[in-house]
Amino acid sequence: MSRAIYPGSFDPVTYGHIDIIKRAAKIFDELTVSVLKxxxxxxxxxxxxxxxxxxxxxxxxPNVKVESYSGLLAEYAEKNHTExxxxxxxxxxxxxxxxxxxxxxxxxxxxxxxxxxxTSLEYSYLxxxxxxxxxAYGGDIHHFVPDFIAKKxxxxxxxxxxxxx
Length: 165
Ligand code: ADP
Fold this sequence. Notes:
binds adenosine-5'-diphosphate, alpha/beta, three-stranded parallel sheet, single chain
């Protein structure tokens, strides 16, 4: 059985992530989308909120499960008997960072390899931070994320703006 992990912050999940999830789910028998518990970042959504949003997005994909993890990705992959990490590549700017991370993970756990899926053209500009930024200024994010997520992003961006007043 072929397994892969698709890790990330997913703060929030975008159509770009969803495209990678759907494509990876076709290639592998089992895909685990995993939200990184990263104490260094101040996220818009908690890990549990992000996991729940991803679960809703992946509801119709029977071979996809959603989890969270903390610590070293390579060790988490090994513990889950998964030898493939999926990452999405948007532009050359992603490449240098992703190469370094992939090589580090392979060094830590030599059985673990990273496979890159190139972004679909229509999503190559899209990132979670763009979504947060546009929403913070009241812009339209419906082309970037599913409607139920857009609603949550606007609510949260509004709370943040009011909290900062
Ligand atoms: P991180 O904070 O670890 O960069 P993200 O949640 O931003 O995590 O992204 C997770 C993965 O999804 C990364 O491999 C990233 O390159 C990829 N990704 C993000 N946005 C897109 C997109 N629009 N198209 C394809 N891949 C994407």
